[in-house]
Design brief:
The structure is a single chain. By secondary structure, the chain is an alpha+beta fold. 28% of the residues lie in helices and 26% in strands. The protein is built from 12 helices and 16 strands. The strands form 3 sheets. An 8-stranded mixed sheet has the order 6-10-11-16-15-14-13-12. Strands 1-2-3-5-4 form a 5-stranded mixed β-barrel. Helix 8 packs across helix 9. The longest helix is centred in the middle third of the chain and has 23 residues. The protein is elongated and about 85 Å long. The two termini are 28 Å apart. The structure holds adenosine-5'-triphosphate and magnesium ion. Adenosine-5'-triphosphate binds next to strand 11, strand 15, strand 16 and helix 12.
């Protein structure tokens, strides 16, 4: 095995141009293909940006070098130093006639699955060797889009004056008193992995930071095994003081449009490779009242009674009718969390909203209750003991402005943008009912 020594990559495969003709370059990557045509051998080396052909004609390279190349296994790591030649027949239009090849890491055979050509394997096998799966450019493309989505989120929120915060993930009480929590042992006490930064970001509204956001993990011990639920997921959360639900809905729809516009501009190659059908939504998005939403479902023979949450078939039926992102507003107070502010004119309805993609929910938000008496009352109505929430309620005792916010599932949004039907495709190492390794 060779050492890298002083060698460094001079170009990624995609960076070669006519200007490099006859120049000596150093490329680095994985052996994608090896073809020996008798008299001439071809290596295709793959890196993050694409593939480059290394051509070894018997007449031009030493026996030693040809021997080295023919001993390579697919997916081994090599560095190649050689001369660039423009050649129409080569993929990408260039080939390299090598002077030296360094074999830095020989790959074992057989591979868990093929990386080049027709990859015929199931998701579970792919996830078991995710490092190998990502060597396929259509898989890497999903994660390049993911990177751009999260960059655009930060760009948008920072430009709008939001301050990034980080809140604890190990907590003593459940956010909403739900049962879907992972208990952990915290020295001699029981603790939980936090299911949402909700309480902490609301407490920041009393701090005077005014507009905060967090991009961080949430943990939910949901037992079900669906194509849109994970047990560990990344949530994009905002909270804004002196704002109501309408204000933060506008921020949300504008952010989604900004992200999609940015991804379409900056990830053309990746979107094409994964065959994404993403389109910029037309703003303002439709605001569908809960009552109208259940009426659409009922018309399509999916029974939803007033006061019930929307089932998956109901969400699908309504989404089909609307055909684009849309909001559902005017939710019954009883099915929204205790911190959702009831409407002034009718307290049976709340200032809570969901942002829907035609196929699934991507965000939930609300104007929050900032009056401590009402907050305690709502907790009791929902079967929670306000004494368990002293640390949270304290922040409402000494000057809490009206505020509103939302939580947006990063993976749900990325699924929508990359047109993936299984959420596991858009997270490196999914955590689900069966999967904890790797
Ligand atoms: P759903 O009804 O789709 O299960 P939810 O209403 O339980 O979602 P919220 O508590 O409102 O979820 O969380 C806010 C957002 O976080 C959701 O709109 C969704 O985008 C995301 N999210 C919630 N739970 C999960 C999960 N288990 N896996 C992936 N994303 C999730
Ligand atoms: Mg929700």
């Amino acid at each position: 095995m060779n050492k890298m020594g002083e060698w460094r990559r001079s170009h990624y495969s995609g960076q070669l141009s006519s200007e490099n003709q006859d120049e000596e370059v150093t490329i680095a990557g994985w052996v994608h293909e090896i073809r020996d045509l008798g008299g001439v051998m071809f290596l295709v080396v793959r890196d993050r940006e694409g593939e480059i052909q290394i051509t070894l004609p018997d007449s031009k390279v030493s026996d030693n070098l040809s021997q080295k190349a023919s001993n390579l296994n697919k997916e081994s790591v090599v560095m190649v130093r050689g001369i660039v030649k423009e050649d129409e027949r080569a993929p990408g239009g260039f080939e390299i006639i090598p002077e030296q090849i360094k074999v830095l890491s020989q790959a074992k055979t057989p591979l868990p699955f093929e990386v080049s050509g027709n990859v015929n394997t199931d998701l579970s096998t792919r996830l078991n060797s995710r490092f190998l799966d990502l060597r396929r450019s259509e898989i890497a493309s999903i994660f390049k889009v993911r990177n751009t989505v999260l960059t655009k989120v930060r760009e948008f929120l920072e430009t709008d004056g939001f301050i990034e915060i980080n809140t604890p993930k190990m907590v003593a009480t459940a956010t909403e008193g739900g049962t879907d929590l992972f208990p952990i042992s915290y020295f001699e006490r029981e603790a939980f992995l936090n299911q949402s930064p909700q309480l902490f970001k609301q407490m920041m509204m009393s701090s005077g930071l005014d507009k905060v956001y967090e991009i961080g993990p949430i943990f939910r011990a949901e037992e079900h095994d669906t194509h849109r639920h994970l047990n560990e997921s990344i949530s994009i959360d905002i909270e804004s003081a002196f704002a109501d639900h309408n204000d933060v809905m506008e921020i949300l729809e504008e952010m989604i449009a900004y992200i999609i516009e940015g991804v379409k501009k900056e990830c053309k190659k990746e979107l094409k490779e994964i065959d994404s059908k993403v389109e910029e939504p037309e703003l303002p998005l439709k605001r569908l009242r809960y009552e109208e939403a259940i009426e659409i479902a009922n018309q399509k023979d999916i029974d939803v009674l007033w006061g019930e949450d929307l089932s998956t078939p109901a969400e699908k039926a309504i989404g089909e009718e609307i055909g684009d992102y849309y909001f559902i507003v005017d939710w019954p107070s009883e099915i929204k969390p205790f911190y959702a502010q009831p409407k002034d004119e009718n307290s049976d309805l709340s200032k809570a909203f969901d942002l829907m993609h035609p196929e699934f929910e991507i965000s939930s938000g609300a104007q929050r209750v900032h009056n401590i008496e009402l907050l305690k009352e709502r907790m009791i109505q929902q079967g929670l003991d306000p004494n368990d929430f002293d640390f949270y309620l304290d922040a409402f005792e000494y000057g809490m402005p009206p505020h509103a916010g939302w939580g947006l599932g990063a993976e749900r949004l990325i699924m929508a943008i990359t047109s993936q039907s299984n959420i596991r495709e858009v997270i490196l190492f999914p955590r689900d009912r069966k999967r904890l390794i790797p």
